[in-house]
Amino acid sequence: MEEVGKITESTTSSFIFRAEKEIRKHDYVKVGEVLAQVWEIKQQSNGVFAYAHIIGSESKRYMARSPFKIGSEVYRAEEHFIKRVLGIGREGIYIGLLKDSEVKINLSPDILIQKHACILAKSGSGKSYTVGVMIEEFIKKDIPVVIIDPHGEYISLRRPNLDKQEMYIMKRFGIRPRGYTKNVYEFSPVCSKNRTAIPLYLEETNLSFQDLLNLLPNATTVQKGILYEAYKKAREKKFYFLKDILEEVKKTKSNAKWNLVPQIEQIISMNLFSINYTSINEIIKKGRCSIINLRGVPPYIQEILVSLLLTKVFEERKNDGIPPVLVVVEEAHRYAPERGQGKSFAGEIIRTIASEGRKFGVGLVIVSQRPARVDKNVLSQCNTHIILKTTNPNDLKAIVASVEGLDAKSAGEIQMLPVGIAIVAGLPLPAPIFVEIRPRETLHGGKLSEI
Fold this sequence. Notes:
The protein is of the alpha/beta class. The chain has helices at 79-86, 109-115, 127-140, 164-173, 209-215, 221-234, 242-251, 257-269, 280-283, 299-318, 332-335, 347-360, 376-380, 393-402, 408-415, 445-448; strands at residues 3-10, 14-19, 28-31, 34-44, 47-57, 73-76, 93-98, 104-107, 117-120, 145-149, 184-188, 198-199, 202-203, 273-274, 289-293, 325-329, 362-368, 384-387, 421-426, 433-437.
């Protein structure tokens, strides 16, 4: 072992040592069988001093009850020791390397599904790129993935990443270019703008009254009464559809119907519903990544579709009708906004999945460039956090408040993160770690538009 210094000050959670060998910020060191990480280095007139935070030891019961003795030797931590203490598995979801090392970071797919995750960063910091890396790994493990994709950028998962610069970097990470054409399926309700997509239709036969209320969340009490009467009349048929509901609404004498009629007509005109609906078993299959491409779909219709689709996923999973699935929600602040940041009736089902999905095998990955605008109850349910560069003060506060192990000082670290470097915190890690996200095997959606 290489000794790098001796302790000059110590508490039960951190220590300072005078560096006798070269030491860098974020390096891992050990004292006895305890692992620590250097978070700050100061050059003083009497030498170089490193400030280290204690992470823990191989003993799960380890809890410091007294500080290290002054003069205790500090050693550079070996990679095998770092891996054991951090609990980084040999297999799992391979997202990259521990910063400034060759230690592979593998996250548990079971924990990601059962405990949920979030990927937070400002635009251009590698957020969607990191999502792509995770999805590649889930595809390899035959775990179904459903992506709510507002911009249609994840269809690029079908094509290999042939960027020369990234191909060179891939060697260090032990990966090669690869496309997942056979695994990636694209669905869209607007195929005129997404020509490679499979048409996405929802079932409209014999919609329940609650389904109608979900479609018309802004209906007043009087309008709900009109809707209910129309629903009762339509039910007299063996099979009824939205157009039957519309005809019954038009027959009512109340003038309140004139606000309902255009809303129902708009929903019908979007062709979201069909008797030839898309089966949930077609969207969710082992080894299949299904992209719900919402490019070109009005925000109001997006919310309806996301709400009804995720409700169907959750109900089918509760009834064991589909295998365990990972749901990725891009631009999550749109669909599950914090109070005071707008409304979305997709928010209710996302909150339900966040709080109850783990019981039934519905994992959730929340992705956003505006963490402060995402429902705090949803963020609080995410146990694995992948944080890339963020600079907005409100977003930084939201991140520090929701991520265990981060403090006010961490906000400064998050602001200075280089593109492609992430802080990963939460289960199963005992402390936040800095990870160099591996290159994507597939083409990044941001580059697809340049071709």
